[in-house]
Structure formats: structure tokens, C-alpha cells
């Protein structure tokens, strides 16, 4: 299938919604404020796509600066424990999963899905004071979502809607970007960079410069950064599907949920058809970011299950976006984003609104702890 600009597949959308327009100014930090290196805890984060956990096995992954293991259990559920035995700190994922019990490879203690020690290789009963840390984990939308905050508040209804991800013909993938997750959010919430960074890969032609941007908030709390271009020249890849000189209406809508769970919707319709006569079906793709460390991020995405689509996605993310985000991270070093006094442009409105929302969530958690 033809690889359309801005996307790695051609799937009809079910994602919609919007409410008010607003440009967000710079928000200075307050005294005692947490910096961008502090994670908001009471949120769902994506740990892995479900296919990444081997059947009846374990996956080890660094998330929010700590190693965690995800185990696939016999009843179809998953367990998420700190990948660090509480006895002498070796990775439990190097042990074995047997009968839903994770056996440490060093001295043989066994832990159940709650982190309780349920097996002692010696005749005495398992020590009740030894526990592995655990986190709530939920299997939804082909992903495994974890809640690093208060387990009593881990309501699965708060997981953002990514139901569209479960569809045929698509391959779900992950890569690591060497930059803070909010720098990756900046990249995705400000798609104007495509006119410079992705000119070849996406065949863009400057239409976004004549587009109108709106930043909106919907009833689910999502922030949308929308670009709408009316009656513009088509991108190069679409020209063969149109008559000579025919214009198109194009839209690029990015939805953001805290901490960094995004969906990009792209549409292209013949101009003057009220978006009814699409050149290709509307395209929708996940762009979900989870911090690995303070300076690196897991990037979860999907694309059509073809070698061409896979290669295009890697070109865009690995060869084009990644070096820019990494360079920004290196220039920033360990400084807080706001302390570096970034210039704020109108086109940053969506990215800044997302940063502001995270700042508010951090403040709220700081006040709860104080
Ligand atoms: S390190 Fe795990 S049982 Fe000793
Ligand atoms: Fe990009």
C-alpha cells in the first residue's frame, strides 16, 4: 500500500473531539517546585506492547529510572515486580517463572504476583518480611499499562482510549530516544518541524505555513494540537492520485494525554468536498512515550506490517527526529527546561499547554506529599 505522508499506514479514524482555543504563556517555576526530572506518579504509563512479553516468560525493562519485570501469568493476567531481588538485589528476570511464581536465580526464593515471598528452598516457611515491590499493571489496547503511584488510585478507566490500536495489518514497535520524554512531546506536539526535518521522508511542501493552528481541550482532559490547511497544494506523494493542479484540504491533529500518550490523525480530502472525498482513508497512529531514564525515552508506535513501512518509520524516528532530540538534550544537560529560558513561539502552544499540565500535576503531587 502507498505510504502516506505523516503516517505509516492508512486506517480510518475513530478519534475526534475538541472545545476551546487558547495560547499558553511561559509558566515560571515556583519555589520548591519539582523539576522536569520528577515523574508524575499517579498516572498510567505504557510499559510494553503485549507481544514483547514472551509467552509464559518475563520481560525486563527500565522504566522511570528503575528496572521492572513484567511476567505473563497462566490466567492471562500480568504481574509487574521490581526487577531486583529484595535479598541481594540480583535481577529476578534472570530467574525462572514456574507456576506463576518467579524464582530468584541466586538463592532460590520465589515471589508471587503480589511480590509476596511464597517459596523458600529450605524447610522453613517462606519469610513473610521479604517482599518484592510491585506495581498495578493492566492489559489494554494491546499494551501493558502501569501505575507507579498510589495503587488505591489505579483506576483502569483512566487509561487513555487507544482502542484503535488493535487492528489487523499493523505492526506495533518500540525504540529508545536519547532525550527526556518532555522533549519528545515537544517534538510531537509541534509538527512544524516536519517542513524541515522530514521533507524527503514525508514529501511535505510547505502547506503547514498557510495552515491554522488550534489548541483545544476535550472532555476527557486531552489536549489537542490541530493544524488545518484549506485548499493547499497536495504533498508530493498524493499528487499522482489527483488531477493536475487539484487542491486539497489537509489536517494534522495530535491528541495528548498525560504523561505523554499521543495519537496523530491525518486526513487529506479533495478541496471543497467538506472533507467527504478523501484522497486516502484517514490515518491514525499511536505515539506513546514513557520515560526510561531522565535522559531517555521509550517510543511506542505502529506502522503497516510491511518492510517498506518499517523502514520509513525507522528513517523518520531514528535518522531524523532522534538526532535532533538527542542534540537538544545534550545542549540542555541536567538543567531544567525552564531554567534554560527557552524562547516560546506561537506554534509551541500545544506543547507548552502539555508541559503546563504536567507541571500542575507535579505541583499537586508535591502538595499532597507535603
Ligand atoms: S538474591 Fe534472590 S534469593 Fe538471594
Ligand atoms: Fe518528527
Short description:
With 370 residues, this protein is α+β, with helices and mostly antiparallel strands.
Q: What does the average pLDDT come to?
A: 90
Q: Proportion of β residues?
A: 25-35%
CATH top level of the largest domain is Alpha Beta
How many structural units, i.e. domains?
A: 2
CATH superfamily of the largest domain: Naphthalene 1,2-dioxygenase Alpha Subunit, Chain A, domain 1
**Count of beta strands:** 17
Strand order of the largest sheet: 11-17-16-15-14-13-12
* Helix-strand category: alpha+beta
What share of residues is helical? 10-25%
| Alpha carbon gyration radius | 22 Å
CATH topology of the largest domain: Naphthalene 1,2-dioxygenase Alpha Subunit, Chain A, domain 1
Helix count? 5
**Largest β sheet strand count, sense and barrel closure:** 7 strands, antiparallel
How does the SSE layout of this entry go?
Blueprint: E1 45-49, E2 58-63, E3 66-72, E4 78-82, E5 96-98, E6 101-103, E7 110-111, E8 117-119, E9 137-140, E10 143-146, E11 170-177, H1 181-189, H2 194-197, H3 199-202, E12 212-217, E13 223-232, E14 248-257, E15 261-270, E16 283-293, E17 296-304, H4 307-332, H5 349-369
Antiparallel strand pairs: 1-10, 2-3, 3-4, 5-6, 6-7, 7-8, 9-10, 11-17, 12-13, 13-14, 14-15, 15-16, 16-17
Helix pairs in contact: 1-5
The protein binds FE2/S2 (inorganic) cluster (FES) and fe (ii) ion.
Amino acid at each position: 500500500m502507498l505510504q502516506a505522508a505523516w503516517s505509516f499506514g492508512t486506517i480510518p479514524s475513530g478519534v475526534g473531539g475538541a472545545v476551546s482555543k487558547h495560547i499558553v504563556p511561559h509558566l515560571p517555576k515556583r519555589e520548591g517546585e519539582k523539576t522536569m526530572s520528577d515523574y508524575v506518579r499517579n498516572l498510567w504509563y505504557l510499559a510494553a506492547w503485549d507481544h514483547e512479553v514472551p509467552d509464559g516468560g518475563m520481560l525486563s525493562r527500565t522504566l522511570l529510572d528503575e528496572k521492572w519485570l513484567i511476567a505473563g501469568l497462566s490466567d492471562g493476567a500480568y504481574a509487574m515486580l521490581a526487577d531486583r531481588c529484595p535479598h541481594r538485589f540480583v535481577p529476578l528476570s534472570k530467574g525462572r517463572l514456574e507456576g506463576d511464581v518467579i524464582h530468584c536465580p541466586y538463592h532460590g526464593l520465589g515471589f508471587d504476583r503480589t511480590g509476596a515471598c511464597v517459596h523458600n528452598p529450605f524447610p522453613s516457611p517462606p519469610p513473610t518480611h521479604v517482599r518484592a515491590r510491585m506495581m498495578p499493571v493492566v492489559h489494554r489496547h494491546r499494551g501493558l499499562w502501569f501505575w507507579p503511584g498510589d495503587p488505591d488510585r489505579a483506576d483502569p478507566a483512566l487509561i487513555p482510549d487507544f482502542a484503535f490500536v488493535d487492528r489487523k495489518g499493523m505492526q506495533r514497535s518500540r525504540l529508545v530516544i536519547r532525550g527526556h520524554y518532555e522533549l519528545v512531546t515537544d517534538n510531537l506536539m509541534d509538527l512544524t518541524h516536519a517542513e524541515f526535518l522530514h521533507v524527503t521522508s514525508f514529501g511535505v511542501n510547505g502547506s503547514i505555513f498557510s495552515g491554522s493552528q488550534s489548541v483545544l481541550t476535550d472532555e476527557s482532559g486531552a489536549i489537542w494540537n490541530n493544524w488545518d490547511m484549506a485548499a493547499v497544494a497536495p504533498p508530493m506523494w498524493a499528487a499522482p492520485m489527483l488531477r493536475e493542479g487539484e487542491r486539497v484540504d489537509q489536517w494534522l491533529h495530535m491528541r495528548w494525554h498525560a504523561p505523554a500518550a499521543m495519537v496523530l490523525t491525518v486526513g487529506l480530502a479533495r478541496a471543497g468536498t467538506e472533507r467527504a472525498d478523501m484522497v486516502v482513508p484517514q490515518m491514525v497512529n499511536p505515539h506513546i512515550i514513557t520515560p526510561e531514564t531522565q535522559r531517555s525515552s521509550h517510543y511506542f508506535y505502529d506502522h503497516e506490517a510491511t518492510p517498506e513501512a518499517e523502514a520509513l518509520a525507522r528513517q523518520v524516528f531514528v535518522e531524523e527526529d532522534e538526532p535532533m532530540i538527542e542534540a537538544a538534550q545534550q545542549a540542555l544537560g541536567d538543567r531544567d527546561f525552564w531554567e534554560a529560558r527557552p524562547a516560546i513561539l506561537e506554534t509551541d502552544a500545544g506543547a507548552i499547554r502539555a508541559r503546563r499540565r504536567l507541571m500542575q500535576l507535579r505541583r499537586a503531587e508535591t502538595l499532597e506529599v507535603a
